[in-house]
Every structure is written in C-alpha cells, then in structure tokens.
Amino acid sequence: MLNEAASKGAPPWIAAQVRQLLAQRGHAWLLQGPSGLGQYGLALELARAWLCEQPGEAGACGVCGSCHAIDVRTHADLCVLMPETVLLELGWPLGEKAQTEIDDKKRKASKEIRVDAMREAVEFSQRTSARGRGKVVLVFPAEQMNIITANTLLKTLEEPPGDVKFVLASESAHQLLPTIRSRCLGHAMRWPDAQAALDWLQCHGCDLPKAQLLLRAMGGRPDDALAFLASGRDPAAWAALPGAMAKGEVGFFKDWTIPQMVDALHKLSHDLLAHKAGAVPRFFAPNDLRTAASVEALTTWSKALARTMRTMDHPFNAGLMQEALVGQAKSVLNSGH
Known about the structure:
By secondary structure, this protein is of the alpha/beta class. It has helices spanning 4-7, 12-22, 39-51, 65-71, 84-90, 96-103, 115-125, 147-158, 178-182, 194-203, 208-217, 222-230, 241-246, 258-276, 295-311, 318-333; strands at 28-32, 78-81, 135-139, 164-170, 185-188.
C-alpha cells in the first residue's frame, strides 16, 4: 500500500526524511533549514504518521479515518499553530473567535503566532486523545513565535503531558529562543539533488526549460520554485531582471510583493559580487550579469538590502517603496560609468 507521502505526491527527498525520522525516538522535533526545502510538508507527513491508524515504516497509510481527517483539516488530535495569514493561505481553519474578529473587521489576520493560540495549544496538549493515537502540535513557521508566545510553550515542551508530540518547522531557526532549540531534537532539512527536483517540478506542470530556470533562480529550492510558478509571475522574465533594473523599470515588478522584490534584488547583488570576483553566480546566468557596477557600490547595496529585509513586512506604501528600491538598483548598476 502506498504511504501518505507517496499518495499525496510528496517529493522523494521528503519521503526519505519521513522514514528516517520515524525510526527515531523523541517527543519534540525541530525541522530547520532555509526556505523552499519542505519543512511544512515534512512536519505534516510526520503528524500524519504519528496519528495514523495503520502506520508503516514509510509513514501514514493515506486511507484511514485519521488520514482523511487531516486531509479535510478536522483532526481532533492535531493542533496546528501558525500565523493566521499562513493558516488562511494553507487552508487551515481559524478559531471561531479569531474568525469572527477578522470577519467583523475588528482586526487583520496576524502575521505572528498569537499567544492566545499558544495557550489553547497548551490546553489541547493536556486533554485526552480523541482517537487514541496520541496528539500532535505542529508549529510553522516556528520563528514567528514572539518571546511571550515561545515562553508559553516552553514548560509544556520540556515536560509534555501524556502522549503528545511536537514538531516545530522553521526557515530561520537562529531566531528561536535557545531554550526552545535545546528542548527539541534537531533535524537539518535535506537538499534534493537537481535531477530529482527537476523531475518533481515537471510533475507539477512545469516544462523542463522553465523548471531549470526557476530552480536556478530559487537557489536549488524546489518549494520556492513551485511557489514562484504559482504566484502568476512570469519565470521567463527572471533573466531580464538585471537589465530592467539597470534601466530603472519600476513596472517590471508590477505583479510582485515587496518581500519577493527584495529577495530578487538581494540575489542579484549576491551574483553581481560573485561575478566580479570571478566566482560562478548562483541565481542568474553569467551572460545576464553584464554591468558597469563598481564593487564598492555593490557591497554597500547588499548591506542596504539586508537592512531592508528586516522591515519589508511593515506597512509602508508599496508603490513608493518599489520606486525607491528600483531607483537604488539603477544607481548601483550604473555606478561604474
């Protein structure tokens, strides 16, 4: 019988990690690594396997009542802790109170994991299992817990009541409290080989040239490549990005969010510096990086973009910020003239 990872089309590198982690003992895991490597997918597959009524060495069965309950987001023994924006994006229901507040325009969906939700998760962990297979608390992205929320989890994470397992998935584990990290068994996400990632992207409707371009643009991270494809942005435009920035074309980013834009510019600055130093660029083809930018200007720009990344989720005027970022890029890319 196919396990859940296979039946849901989980990438082979995720299925292999499911088998590896299920063979080990522990009540709290921290799945860590850069974005795009499948932390959320691996966390969910582990939760499926732990709660499955007919689990195997390779994971959940995919056909039992427990697996179905997870598929339809109604499993009584699974508590999913995410920022409300992420819950909505991934199709998980909000709590009744939170949904009412957002529907009534009393507040916007939170971009952090709220302390109220964490308190509910602690209370959930103390209840008796509804299906008799234990309980699971899934936290993603774990770095979106603020200090109060993280401290609320700490005691329960250290001394879990009854048969409860925790799986924390993070794309920035260094931002977590050291006390949270020390109470979890760490697992570094596995990078897929290029051919496996290309095959997987093609299975999701991406032709080979587009898959190759996207995988390069996303630094070899297949989940990020698939997210780029799903966003509606044109993958073919990636190669044109350096030239468009040199000309100051703000319209190039008309379908991009500010975080997507800053990420792309940061990759461009990285590759231009690498190219100037004689190294192989990571995100762009060498022929796309012909520019008169000076090394000094590129270095200053890279540092400025790193600072911008810390505040890019703040409610600035998006149009003005786009113009400022493109103007900055144009100035840098023409600094050697």
